[in-house]
Fold:
Amino acid sequence: MVEQPMTPSHKPDLSDAGPSTRAVHSGTLRGPEMRPVVPPIHPSVAYLSEDPDDLRAVLAGEKEGYVYSRNGNPTVAALRESLTALEGAGDSVVFGSGMAAIHAALLAVDVAAGATLVASRDLYGVTVSLLNTVLAPMGVRVVYADLTNLEEAREVLEREKPVAVYCETVSNPTLRLVDIAGLAELTRAHKAALLVDNTFATPMLVRPLELGADISVTSTTKYLSGHGDVIGGAASGAWDVCARMTKMAVVVGGIASPFDAWLTLRGIRTLGLRVPRQCATALAIACMLEEHPKVARVHYPGLQSHPQHQLARQMMCGRYGGMVSFELAEDTEEAANRVLSRLRLCLPATSLGDVYTLLLHPVSSSHLTMSPRDRERLGVKPGMLRVSAGIEDEADILADLCQALDAA
Structure:
């Protein structure tokens, strides 16, 4: 059977057009709705409408649709829908990076001049830089507390009366856990918004909104994308707070591109396969490291030796994440660098959640911007290394880590 050619709308008559006009307007098929199995990438900046009044209505928020990709894009909208389902949220907003998502989420809950924000002492170094070098100079009072201790959290909330509380489900790189449900009770009682960075856990292990958090933030660069080829971030929550974050993204411009959104969607489709594999490998790594003579201490919630192992069992769906950190017996940066330089399979790289097994030295990368005193207070030592388990064969990963430690 010979297929009949489509008759697209908005198709100009090019029979008498010049070559430049033909180059611009040919090949723009806009026919009846096509339904590919894989959602397509929509890279267009602008969108057409049969009725000019529709454009105004869409821009004014009176009607659903697309006018300009900074305001909305079909590929990005598909990612928003996926994240909303994963997080159990009212809506989600997608950003060009995890840091852009954190920034917008804080602004959306009225973290502004004159307000107080209580933040966990255990935070990613660049998040601390955002709070100290961007928000604090704007007049935000930032108070750090040990939010793994609910009694201390209660005292700080009563004393400081913050508008918001910010923490990580599992801290980077010390792998301490926050009891999100317990902390959410406290923040509700004190009328403070609770924002949780859930990057390390992913919605496969923990869904902060279901535990009472107001906003769940994630760096989609990591586990959700999962292939080390796209930078992105997202924040999920109730519809009204997401509307405020959307406005922030549109005005400030920290949006995700259609191609980045498409890559992230591709990664999410295998999230349910990758995360269990990475969790199992991480547990094997942690057990091996505990027995190695050159390792002084291992941080992993799945180990009985972890001080919050029982909380991890309750909160993390029976799996404990794909991240492990450990301290070398020789607690020096030189010793850490020797281990990194002797890796043959695992990769020394400043990311996580990838299909590759990655090792990172926090002192010289993720926490480089923090002072030595602040790092020491957090337990981020010169001889600490962080491992992000990949999806290679477990035996190969263990063998490479062992030989690197033995040779260092």
Notes: The two ends are 68 Å apart (CA to CA). Residues 154 and 178 are 13 Å apart (CA to CA).
